[in-house]
Amino acid sequence: MKFEGSYSLERAGAPPEKGAVVLSLLEDSLVLAPARGTPLTLPWESLLSFSPADHKVSLAISGASLVISGLGYKYDDLVRRASRLRNERLIKLGLAGEPMKHSMIEADLAFSAPGREFAGRCELRIHETSLLALPETAEYLRLPFRYIAEVKEEDYAVEIRAVTGETWRLSGLGGKYDHFRGSLAAAMDGNALFVQGALAAAMPGADPLKVRALSGLLKEGLLVASEAIEKAAPGAFVLIGKRICSSKTDAAEYGFLKGLAAPGRLAFGVKKGLMGALSGDHFVLVFGVEKPAPAAVVEYFLVEPAGEKTDKAATYVYRLPPAGGWEEFLSFFNRAMTAVNFRRMPVLLSDEALLAPKNAVYAGALARVPELRELRSLYAGRAVHSEDGGWEADVKAILGFAASSRAPARWRKGGAAGPEEEEGEE
């Protein structure tokens, strides 16, 4: 899509540029073709701010400011299209993409969080496990259902409070008010029922009210310490362990990892597959290890057992940060896995592999998601499950490597530090 207008580009230490310009809105960038001058390509993620007002669009880029004007009656169209393309790109780089259930719901959003406030018109999207808002003049916002503490409805407005301190107040929904509130409730209920179904299968004969109460603690994608689970529902974690050990292979692996864990350092969660049935739903377990050095070992087990055949690709080992203990790491790991949407590939890829064109999205995510940068710095290596055996020895080798090396060094087969193999799973 092309637009004609005027532009003004100012930067420190250089004369300003002004004149007529043709703007091209592409999927990944904004291209300026001045009537006199050299074209300029601005990737959407390079725009530090996007501020339309008084029929002008002010853009901040590193070390410069750009103003677009003279768009005439096409001003509103450019603002709408540019804002959408920019947010679509940022959603992709923010690893926030997942199956979408409902979209094209417009509303007025009043957003507040510690140190940040925003108000404006937006598009709402209800995804499999989260709510997204795409403002007309700001970057997208994402609220995972697992963080929602309360939803209130009053005077045709919906107020959502999150445990993170965020508040979303949505109004101006018009004829889509009932559609939105019903769709949001259905999506959240769907996640709760998914967790209840996984827990009920793991706890045959359990009181349905106990299962429902436990699903309120173990929200989809939230890792909870086993002690908290036992406190909420005594005996529940023992039954969950038996479910995980439904095959000889899983039983042996679970027993080995549990034997490595220090007392009281075990966390559990239930996660929907990012690609639905193609990737499968999983129980996620994090084992806190103290020796030979503090570390966390992460393993995935299928919610629906597949007999003796396993789809597990690997076991992942992370160093614990020098400052803080197990509880602090678990809190961080929950935030980090939510931030990367439980994707493993951007963590696995070596710095060299990130430079490959096919991994450009992950390289962009690294620049925008601070939790991903910290995850990568703590990641020590993975032990691949294979029919050839050697998995237990590899887990022990990675733990030893993590204790004897400094972050961000990574283990690879054979014990040498070096780049991780590029092969991995999403």
Outline of the structure:
This protein has helices at residues 75-93, 177-202, 208-217, 226-232, 236-244, 248-260, 326-339, 345-348, 351-354, 360-368, 370-378, 391-404; strands at 2-11, 14-25, 29-34, 40-43, 49-53, 56-61, 64-69, 100-113, 116-127, 130-135, 141-144, 148-154, 157-162, 167-171, 224-225, 266-271, 282-289, 295-302, 314-319, 379-384.
Would you kindly provide a written description of the structure presented here, covering whatever features stand out?
- This protein is an alpha+beta fold and 426 residues long.
- It has helices at 75-93, 177-202, 208-217, 226-232, 236-244, 248-260, 326-339, 345-348, 351-354, 360-368, 370-378, 391-404, and strands spanning 2-11, 14-25, 29-34, 40-43, 49-53, 56-61, 64-69, 100-113, 116-127, 130-135, 141-144, 148-154, 157-162, 167-171, 224-225, 266-271, 282-289, 295-302, 314-319, 379-384.
- It has a seven-stranded antiparallel sheet with strand order 4-3-2-1-7-6-5, with helices on one face. Strands 11-10-9-8-14-13-12 form a seven-stranded antiparallel sheet. Strands 15-16-17-18-19-20 form a six-stranded antiparallel sheet.
- It is globular and about 70 Å long.
- It starts with a strand and ends in a 22-residue tail after the last helix.
- The model is unreliable at 421-425 (pLDDT under 50).
